[in-house]
Design goal:
With 214 residues, the protein is α+β, with helices and mostly antiparallel strands. The protein has 4 helices and 12 strands. The strands form 2 sheets. Strands 1, 2, 3, 4, 5, 6, 7 and 8 form an 8-stranded mixed β-sheet that branches. β11 and β12 form a beta hairpin.
Length: 214
């Protein structure tokens, strides 16, 4: 029997900036989990995040709120479920993560130096530019989440677009110098294959990464 991975919550903190919708990204130290990558505030659910009778999602939401404060020193408002990511068995770090949209309330950033090396507010478009030129390292869940924010001109618009939370049950296949990530609906996804030619995938390795969904 496969052991269930630990659960985590991640806060996609949004604010209305001068150039449009901005999200908070934190850079991890060069050692440890997600070394050097830019991520959303977040972390594993702790015993204090769990309340008897509540769901896993409730605990993950509480973890996302707590981690935003512990890592960046900020409070957040209106955390709403955006997506749920479950890793494949071969992933080196297996964590079942819930992503929540959240509103910035205007607190000044105070970074936890032991966990966070840097922080910035960026539009999704600027984050993608940095990823393409190699100045920003992203992992697939962050990359796909940022992509979903493109086109929303305000925090309210991003919230208005929310529907049923999407489940990304990731399958990984080595391809060339990178990796092919597929999700339900792709013709090659073993857990939920789509029709012939259907695409729900991300091809990494060569920049820019290529996302396909039909």
């Amino acid at each position: 029997m496969t052991e269930s991975p630990p659960v985590a919550g991640s806060a996609v903190v949004l604010r209305d900036g001068r150039s449009g919708l901005e999200t908070l990204l934190l850079r991890r130290p060069e050692v440890g989990s997600f070394a050097g990558a830019w991520v959303f505030p977040g972390g594993k659910v702790e015993p204090s995040d769990r309340i008897e009778g509540e769901t896993e999602t409730d605990a993950a939401r509480r973890a996302a709120v707590r981690e935003a404060h512990e890592e960046a020193g900020i409070r957040i408002a209106d955390p709403a479920v955006l997506s749920h990511w479950t890793p494949p068995p071969q992933a080196p770090v297996r964590i079942s993560t819930w992503f929540f949209l959240a509103r910035d309330v205007g607190d000044e950033l105070h970074l936890n130096a032991g966990e966070i090396a840097d922080a910035t507010w960026l539009t999704p478009e600027r984050a993608f530019d940095g990823h393409v030129d190699g100045s920003i390292t992203l992992f697939p869940p962050t990359w796909v989440t940022l992509r979903s924010l493109i086109g929303h001109r305000s925090v309210d618009a991003a919230y208005a677009s929310l529907g049923e939370p999407e489940h990304f049950a990731t399958h990984m296949t080595p391809v060339g110098d990178g990796m092919l990530f597929t999700w339900h609906g792709d013709e090659e996804h073993p857990g939920g294959p789509g029709v012939f030619g259907a695409r729900h995938r991300l091809t990494t390795g060569v920049l820019p990464w290529r996302y396909e969904r039909t």
